[in-house]
Amino acid sequence: MKSMERRRAWxxxxxxxxxxxxxxxxxxxxxxxxxxxxxxxSEESARYRTPGIYNANxxxxxxxxxxxxxxxxxKDLWVPNILNADDHWCQGFTEPEAGSDxxxxxxxxxxDGDDYVLNGQKIWISSAHIAKWGLFLVRTDPDAIxxxxxxxxxxxxxxxxxxxxxxxxTVRDIAGEEMFNEVFFTDARVPVAYRLGDxxxxxxxxMGTLGHERVGTAGLAISMRADxxxxxxxxxxxxxxxxxxxxxxxxxxRTHTDIEYTKLLNYRALSKIxxxxxxxxxxxxxxxxxxxxxxxLAELAVDLLGPAGMMAKGxxxxxxxxxxxxxxxxxxxxxxxxxxxxVQKNILADKAIRLPKK
Length: 358
Ligand SMILES: Cc1cc2nc3c(=O)[nH]c(=O)nc-3n(C[C@H](O)[C@H](O)[C@H](O)COP(=O)(O)OP(=O)(O)OC[C@H]3O[C@@H](n4cnc5c(N)ncnc54)[C@H](O)[C@@H]3O)c2cc1C
Hints:
Bound molecules: flavin-adenine dinucleotide
CATH topology of the largest domain: Butyryl-CoA Dehydrogenase, subunit A, domain 3
Structural class: alpha+beta
Helix content: 40-55%
Number of domains: 3
Strand content: 5-15%
Shape: globular
Distance between the termini: 51 Å
Order of helices and strands: HHHHEEEEEEEEHHHHHHH
């Protein structure tokens, strides 16, 4: 929680100088930065290892969606709140039967006067237990799935997480942290005035939201390079023998090359955007490359740092307070979050390589 407060203070400082969301319109506190400027800004922030922002969900995904789809009243109510890190926001899409197949979602919202009444369950919702607000996808046409039209009849609602009938239950993750939640709705009432976009237009709103998620990866190659440099430097004192091991040396060189290659892949996607071409298939390739590299780096770290790298937080001699051990466990998520590896590979096989189907 200390780090969350540090992030909140940092985001507020950025916001004072209009640096919190530079790609946003000027009237909503941004600088209308171009894509190139935004990429440079992300890279420089990563290079200086800035604390990170309080609410990535809000700034990268939900805020831009409210600016695009929201009414004037909704923008006034929520956009400054997101920009200034006043409240935490979560994104509630996934359900037990709707993950990769998101359109299979079944949480219902039934209109009752000026409210929708919600019933159902979400799962894996990051930081829902500390969020005041959330962007949720719900089903307003309960027959659409049976009709074979599951993308139809989904609606986006902004939910006050403190309202009656909403219960968050945290799920402990592999690293021992409790940031995930199951969210249960039992006759929870959400004002119709909190609907984002038209009733039934939730799929369009959601696709825009997930698109914004991809923009946030620009500085990753830079921060991964800094991680690689940091672990090699630390190994000089914590486990110097490892640096003489030819197998480890080769892995360091290979990882370094992979990081450079990932940076070039991002630049190719950027240059396609600048030429007005679709940045395809670089986006799913970059997602695959990111998850592969994040896990490769974390595995390299624990081998490179030896016993000190394996020590968890609080353990004697834990390297960097146990952060490498945590990463080793936590980075497994990168092949699941933002589109699973298998699904990304299917998309590439189908649409980029056009492999024949049986
Ligand atoms: C760290 C983290 C944070 C998250 N935060 C949020 C959040 O804030 N809000 C939110 O709504 N969700 C969140 N999620 C959930 C995430 O979006 C889902 O986990 C993801 O969409 C996968 O869905 P699932 O877990 O139901 O797995 P499934 O879709 O059930 O997949 C299970 C396995 O089957 C494979 N599979 C599925 N379909 C196919 C197919 N057609 N072909 C081949 N293989 C397939 C998958 O690749 C996977 O290996 C988060 C997940 C993680 C890991």
